[in-house]
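In the laboratory, one determines a bound structure by crystallizing the protein with its ligand and collecting diffraction data. In a computational setting the workflow is compressed into a single prediction: the sequence and the ligand go in, and a structural description comes out. We illustrate the idea with zinc ion.
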Amino acid sequence: MGVYRCSDGSKVTQSQIDRRVRQAKAKKLQHCLDKYGYIFCQDCKRNDCKPVDCSHDVSVKECKESGKTELAWDVDNITLRGRSCHARKDKNDVQWNSNLN
Ligand SMILES: [Zn+2]
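The predicted complex, in structure-token form:
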């Protein structure tokens, strides 16, 4: 199984990453509920942008590749996005990545 580096030099496995990302997403959703009382897309802030997903600003893949794996479970790196905003962002990422190839 792959082992990935954090910027402090520590190493984590994929299963540790999965567990921490799951906790960070749960925390993000709870923050939104505590603050606003409901879950909504933080990109367009529309009530009808649904269903709402937890979306990474810096993708988990990028976090791992840059040796800053801890960003994958950084709550500040997670944004709540409705399905259409999430899809738009992922499409932009794909375009951006393909420009590098
Ligand atoms: Zn949206």
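DSSP finds three helices and four strands in the chain. Keep in mind that any predicted model is a hypothesis to be tested, not a measurement.
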